[in-house]
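Dear support,

We are seeing what looks like truncated structure output for some complexes. This example has four components. We would appreciate it if you could run it in full and send us the complete token output so we can diff it against ours.
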Amino acid sequence: MIETDDPELACPIAPAVDLVFSRWTTPILWALHTYGRQRFVQLERRLSSITPKVLTQRLRQLERDGLVTRTYHPEVPPRVEYEITPLGQSLAPLFAGLADWADENLPKVHEARAVFDAR
Amino acid sequence: MIETDDPELACPIAPAVDLVFSRWTTPILWALHTYGRQRFVQLERRLSSITPKVLTQRLRQLERDGLVTRTYHPEVPPRVEYEITPLGQSLAPLFAGLADWADENLPKVHEARAVFDAR
DNA sequence: CTGTATCCGATACGATACTG
DNA sequence: CAGTATCGTATCGGATACAG
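Here is the complete output from our reference environment:
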């Protein structure tokens, strides 16, 4: 039995989880991965329930983390395009694996909930 | 180009993300997966920064979702043991994949942050 | 169009104390 | 030991309005 004094960080995937699965990041990355390079307003419409403030916050974070690039075109009106990076693309197999897991196991989760709630 | 009116849910992994990567779930599942069946107080000590209230909340949620079982032994003092279910175990390959991704790519993320912050 | 600024409410978390 | 109850707080996200 391994013992540790820093148990929370003893979960080796915690940093990656914080990075990849913080709120709005998967829908944004999914949109960029699926529909390709697109403008701010396109993302805003696709993620219909997001506000511009939050979308900006998340895009900045993703840009800082190297998962997304931001390209500014100094025109009138201004045009900004966001695109997923190779580093962001490298998450695709993970997302696919998660989608497969969900296809196979989400029904079991709902079944478990029904059983649990029936008490 | 596919178009949809429900863009947030157009991210097919969103439900699974909510289920698996909500706060504290990965450290708890990791502890149960790594160290096996254990008591409430053992989990509490391993996740040193968690409070009993939150630990209870998360364990109930995991139990309801079928990822964890709770076994109550009516003794004095009472003894309760938690164990990961086969459904919970089915997440192991996903977690391993995430760990591999982190090993290879977290350094790149930190590098990207350093570059970004240097402006 | 692409954001920023402000305010606000909900939620979630932690601290603490207490019970069976 | 295994929780529950209560309280205070902090953070985050949404709504709205506005600017370059």
